[in-house]
Amino acid sequence: MSRFTHLLAGLACAFAAFAAPASAYEIDPLTREPIVPFQNLIPQATAIPREVVSFQGRYAPGTIVISTIERRLYFVLGNGQAIRYGVGVGRPGFDWAGTKLVTRKAEWPTWTPPAEMLRRRPDLPRFMKGGPDNPMGARAMYLGSTLYRIHGSNEPDTIGQAVSSGCIRMMNEDVVDLYERVRVGTRVVVQR
Question: Catalytic site residues?
Answer without folding.
Answer: 151, 167
